[in-house]
Amino acid sequence: MQVHVTLINTDERVRFSDYVDPYVGGEMSVGDIYRAMRTEFGRCTGKMYRDIKNDDGTWRVAHVGWVFLARDKYSDTNETYLREAWVELLNDPEPVASYEIAPY
After folding, report:
1. Per residue in 55-68, pLDDT tens?
2. Dihedral angle over CA of 46, 93, 15, 10, nearest 10
């Protein structure tokens, strides 16, 4: 399982980072991943959901991640901004357009 992270500067309304973090190993539970992301990205403000197509052609809504919020500093000044992090759990991150989602 891997983690897809999208970082947004909510003050400027700009997405400034979008990456897949490969460090999450099979030893970590979903709860461990959540706690690690909360430590890194701040307080959790909500869950992330996706519509997932079942094998029989029907659709279901699956919880696939979380949204975190924290105040962060710009790297070149002492000014701060509100950073939103969308964290999604993935089974197979490639290609980006057709994720295999890891619902739980």
Report:
1. 898 999 999 999 99
2. 10
